[in-house]
Amino acid sequence: MDQRSRARDWSEIQERMLVPLYEAVYERLDVGPATRLLGLGCGSGLALLMAASRGAAVTGVDTSADRLALARERLLPGERDERSRPGGGDGTRIVRGSPREAARADAPAYTVVTAFEPIGPRAGDVEELGGLLSEATPLTGRGAAVVLAGWGPPERCATASVLRVAAKLAEPLRTTGGARAADRDDLERAAARAGLRPDGSGRVACPFGYADVDSAVRGLRSTGLFDAAITATDQVQVDKELAEALHPYQRPDGTVWMPNVFRYLIARTP
């Protein structure tokens, strides 16, 4: 797989599907000039850009060099390496690595931490997220808001039926990165692993809309949720079965539309 092309597909096709989630969370937490936000798994930076447009000082952390390169294009144009924006005070930072890499002795504590990548459809993601949050919470102030996101009930997520393709094709590997059914307590369990206190939750409609089946296949594949299936079979097979699974959601004009509901949990640091 071409990782650079997949990062571009994420940025241009898939990432925008979660904009209603970002907006709902930022509105609820009143994200603005007084906010210092740390985005875990920030990807190509759309959620960070939206927070920055509200006046927040933002730091994004991710392990994907290709996605982070796109985030820098959006937030730090002309700058290839991690740094603060000149003249921007604490500035905008894009950091490759774990949350620990975002620590700076001279920086004020973060007031909001976001983990917008939805957990639920991939085995092991609750434990993985719990570990990331445990690394991030020492960088925050007392009572800071930590936001976790996950898929809603399968019966309210049309994409759930498409994700079952990943589970079916990856079955021969029985890999920990394969798909699984979402659990209604996933977010609470991840928060508990990091010692966080739940402080409210919400649900947001995030329909997935695509120009055509090809765009839908590329967008969904860019999430990484089909990687185990591709390893177990091959990309041609995965793309073929994905296209077949998308057929019920294709409209007469060729566009693809899948209603989904996502859930978010707001937790607080000790």
From TrEMBL:
Region entry Disordered: which residue ranges?
77-102
Superkingdom of the source? Answer: Bacteria
Pfam families noted in UniProt: Methyltransf_11
Could you say which residues form the signal peptide?
Answer: none
Q: Name one GO molecular function term.
A: S-adenosylmethionine-dependent methyltransferase activity
**Record domain Methyltransferase type: where:** 38-75
What's this protein's name? Mycolic acid cyclopropane synthetase
